[in-house]
Structure to design on (640 residues):
């Protein structure tokens, strides 16, 4: 049964489908399946390669991208016609260099304009793109290039290309190596001048939705990365339904220009999917290569996006930084009151939109109006001043922070998905948030919860299979139509999904208690003094935790308490710091039963980093590596 959603002024600005609630199925009294039918018709011909040229024909003068002049100069607009011309020129250069349809071309670069240009140029030439994280080690890069059989590699810098030099003899398929910062894309365009435009048209003309578009390698948290084979049709099923569902974010033609500044890695499916959605919907897209505040904040201030893509860590950092600045200015109590008001306001909005409450009271509206110029506007200004929406994924944001941002005037759309599902499989439905969940199925998606709690996914956005050259190509990943995600979760009565952990990460204590570590880890990670947290307890008598310190938070704490800077290793046993952390653990322990509570913890003198092998490029914990490298600290938590 389907029930229409209410409407709001924001969502009435752009035409969109009448939203419907999920169809659900129960087993033994519990909801085991949820499904939302697709909002967008399936694409039956053509490919992603057509998008720049379709845009150029339909709206040649519309600004579809903005790029930094010279890489770090002022923002320059790129029209649909201009982008199509660049795509055509680079595609002809790739053809001139002898690349043939089906060849794999790898791209190793940060988030920048050239990444999107290369994606569409490669597709226009009939090629398959293979992203490589720019932070990957030489060994990881070589393995991906070998496994994918890439014939060409584009790096951002000469240093990246030089680092791979000693490995080239092990890469017999790799025939071309181009460097963005050396102007090699311009040379490709010049080289392609002698290729007839019709050659690109012919190559585009033979592509269909089922044609392979990209091979994206997973982050490899539990072993060697796997190459996920995604087709043009997978992307169409994902982005077209996302555009229809979240039309105020992606639909051009609203009263206010809509724009997205992308700073998450283009090597990750989330960033690629949103970039494609922006081109598809003709939303002005910008790229920012760095997440460092000193680099990103000026980009946000100049670009002034209306929507951000974010991971929980970033939103936690913005909140904690704002709180720290308020404390340094002697306004901490005022900030905390404002935060409490925002959370209550966000929860009241949720209650009204879900029909469980009347909405914000008159006094709560007045309190929010009072604190808006003092606190909330400053947070919005830190994001560029025009941000109305944020799409958040990667891990659960948490109810408290989601309610705060909603109350501060930024609507958060949480989602859940995998590389294997071309990005999101669930998303917070407009006007119907349920804080603390990851929403309900993206239109066209089926969700099933197996008997052991594992989440299974189905839909046209699910990958064709895994890349396996030893098996002769692509090995099906979901032969029965259901992709086993390895994640554990549950569906509520209305079809909202809550993620509770990873199947392989469940801790089974010596007493037989099953503990999902992720919810507690996410809760503790939001503390301003904690950077990372990993729970332990598998086959142990009780649960413990390894904690790393947030250096910005620690520096602020020491300044505010008149403490002199000391080396990190001396903070491990600082009694005052441990007392603060113990209070945070005590608060988190109230969320769970006694057998699930954290009994002891150790503070590590170093943070978990990707460089040390403790985090994946998408910031997930490599638990086995952490257990190995901090074995002494782990054993110290279980004396005797």
């Amino acid at each position: 049964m389907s029930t229409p959603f209410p409407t709001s002024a924001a969502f009435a600005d752009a035409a969109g489908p009448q939203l419907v609630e999920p169809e659900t199925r129960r087993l033994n009294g519990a909801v085991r399946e949820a499904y939302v039918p697709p909002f967008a018709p399936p694409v039956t011909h053509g490919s992603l390669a057509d998008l720049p040229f379709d845009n150029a024909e339909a709206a040649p003068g519309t600004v579809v991208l903005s790029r930094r002049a010279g890489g770090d100069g002022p923002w320059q607009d790129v029209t649909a016609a201009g982008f199509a011309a660049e795509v055509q020129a680079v595609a002809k250069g790739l053809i001139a260099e002898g690349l043939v349809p089906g060849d794999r071309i790898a791209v190793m670069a940060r988030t920048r304009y050239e990444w999107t240009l290369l994606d569409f140029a490669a597709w226009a030439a009939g090629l398959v793109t293979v992203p490589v994280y720019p932070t990957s080690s030489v060994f990881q890069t070589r393995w991906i290039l070998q496994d994918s059989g890439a014939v060409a590699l584009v790096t951002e810098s000469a240093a990246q290309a030089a680092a791979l030099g000693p490995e080239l003899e092990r890469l017999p398929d790799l025939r071309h190596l181009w460097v963005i910062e050396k102007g090699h894309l311009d040379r490709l365009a010049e080289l392609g001048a002698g290729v007839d435009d019709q050659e690109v048209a012919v190559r585009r003309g033979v592509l269909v939705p089922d044609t392979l578009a990209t091979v994206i390698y997973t982050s490899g948290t539990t072993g060697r990365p796997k190459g996920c084979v995604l087709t043009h049709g997978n992307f169409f099923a994902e982005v077209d339904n996302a555009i229809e569902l979240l039309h105020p974010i992606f639909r051009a033609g609203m009263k206010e220009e809509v724009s997205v500044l992308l700073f998450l890695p283009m090597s990750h499916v989330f960033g690629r999917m949103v970039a494609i959605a922006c081109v598809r919907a003709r939303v002005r897209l910008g790229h920012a290569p760095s997440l460092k505040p000193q680099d990103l904040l000026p980009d946000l201030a100049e670009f002034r996006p209306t929507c951000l893509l974010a991971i929980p860590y970033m939103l936690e950092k913005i909140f904690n930084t704002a709180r720290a600045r308020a404390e340094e200015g002697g306004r901490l109590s005022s900030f905390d009151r404002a935060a409490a008001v925002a959370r209550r306001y966000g929860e009241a909005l949720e209650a009204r939109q879900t029909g469980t409450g009347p909405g914000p009271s008159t006094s709560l509206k007045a309190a929010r109006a009072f604190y808006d110029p003092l606190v909330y506007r400053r947070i919005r200004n830190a994001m560029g001043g025009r941000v109305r929406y944020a799409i958040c994924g990667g891990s659960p944001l948490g109810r408290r922070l989601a309610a705060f941002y909603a109350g501060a005037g930024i609507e958060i759309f949480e989602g859940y998905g995998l590389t294997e599902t071309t990005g999101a499989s669930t998303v917070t439905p407009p006007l119907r948030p349920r804080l603390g969940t990851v929403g309900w199925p993206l239109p066209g998606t089926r969700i099933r919860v197996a008997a052991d709690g594992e989440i299974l996914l189905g839909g046209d956005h699910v990958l064709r299979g895994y890349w396996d050259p030893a098996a002769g190509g692509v090995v099906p990943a979901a032969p029965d139509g259901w992709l086993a995600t390895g994640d554990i979760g549950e569906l509520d009565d209305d079809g909202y999904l809550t993620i509770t952990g990873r199947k392989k990460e469940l801790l089974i204590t010596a007493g037989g208690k099953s503990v999902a570590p992720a919810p507690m880890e996410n809760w503790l990670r939001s503390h301003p003094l904690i950077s990372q947290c990993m729970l332990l307890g598998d086959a142990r008598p009780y649960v413990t935790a390894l904690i790393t310190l947030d250096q910005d938070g620690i520096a602020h704490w020491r300044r505010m308490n008149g403490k002199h800077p000391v080396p990190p290793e001396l903070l491990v046993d600082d009694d005052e710091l441990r007392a603060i952390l113990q209070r945070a653990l005590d608060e988190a322990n109230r969320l769970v039963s006694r057998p699930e509570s954290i009994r002891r913890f150790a503070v590590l003198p170093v943070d978990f980093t990707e460089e040390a092998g403790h985090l994946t490029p998408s910031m997930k914990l490599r638990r086995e590596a952490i257990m190995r490298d901090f074995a002494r600290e782990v054993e110290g938590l279980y004396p005797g």
User: Anything to note?
Assistant: The first helix runs from residue 9 to 12. DSSP finds 22 helices and 28 strands in the chain.
